[in-house]
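Dissemination and training. As part of the outreach component of the grant, students in the summer workshop were shown how a complex can be specified as a set of sequence lines and then modelled as a single object. The example used during the hands-on session is reproduced here so that future cohorts can follow it. Participants entered these lines:
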Amino acid sequence: MTNKDDLRPNEQTVTLAPASDASLRFIGKIRTPWRSRQQCPRQGQIDGPECQLVLDLVWHEALRGLEAYEMIEVLYWLDRSRRDLVLQSPKSDGQTFGTFALRSPVRPNPIGTALVRLERIEAGTVYVRGLDCLDGTPLIDIKPDRCAFSPKAPPKPAAIIPR
Amino acid sequence: MTNKDDLRPNEQTVTLAPASDASLRFIGKIRTPWRSRQQCPRQGQIDGPECQLVLDLVWHEALRGLEAYEMIEVLYWLDRSRRDLVLQSPKSDGQTFGTFALRSPVRPNPIGTALVRLERIEAGTVYVRGLDCLDGTPLIDIKPDRCAFSPKAPPKPAAIIPR
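and obtained this result:
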C-alpha cells in the first residue's frame, strides 16, 4: 500500500522522514471473520459477529477487573496502510478531504479505535462485538469506555486484591 | 517514571523486550493550561478550558473538512508514563486492578484518547475543549468522532476540491 499507483484523483502525499518518535509493542492479536478489506464492514456494529482479542500471555493479569465493564475501547494497528496521504478521495467521486477529517485507515499513525461490547473474558481472550477490522490485526490497547465510569456492576471480589 | 520506587502496594511489573513492533511519528503538540500531573483534571470536560492542537506544517492540509464536525477524537502520546505495569493500585487504598481495566496513563502503549468539542481551526491549529493532558503532550492523530457520521453541517464548499 505504498505504491503511487494506489492514489485516487486529487489525493496528495507528503514526503516524510522515517517514523521514529515513539515505539509500540503489540499486546496480542485480533481475530475477526474478515480476511480481506472488501469483507470488512464499513463500521463495526454492537450486534455484529463475535470477535476475539487474544492477549499475549504476559498481559493476561492486566485484564483483571475489566469484566465489570459493558463497553470497552480497543486500539489496534492498521498495519497495511500507507502513512503519507494528507488529502484523500475515499469514494473516488471527486470529493477530497483532509486525512484528519476521515476515519480512513490511511493516516500518519494508522491506529484504529473502536468502542465494543464486552461479552466475556476466558483465559486471556476477550470476546467482543462491534469491530470492523481484518483478522490478524495487531492489538495495541484495551481500556474501559471513557463514558463508562459507571461500571455495569460493582467491582467483583475477584477484581480486588486484599492488602 | 521507570523507577521501582514509584510502585504502590500490590502493583506488579513485567520484564519486557524493547518496544519495536511499530513506530509513531508525532504530528504536532498539544497546548493545555496544565504544567504538572497534579494540575491535570481527572477527566476532560467539554466545557473545560480551551486547548490547542498545534499541527506540524506538513499536516496543515490534512485538516481540510474537519471543520464540519462538532466532536472529534484526539490521540496523544503519554510520554512520561512507565509501560511495564500489569497490576495497578491507582488510589493506594489496597484495591488493585489490571492495567486494561483502567484508563491510567500507565500502560504498555501509553496512548491517550479523548473526545473533544471542536471550537475552530486557524492556521493549522485546532482549538478544542475537553482535554485533560499535560501541556506539551505529543499529538498522534485527530479523527471525526465515530458517532458523528452525522456532521453538524453538510460539507462546506471549501472542503471539496472540484475535479
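Residues 149-163 of chain A have pLDDT under 50 and may be disordered. Students were then asked to discuss how this feature might be tested experimentally.
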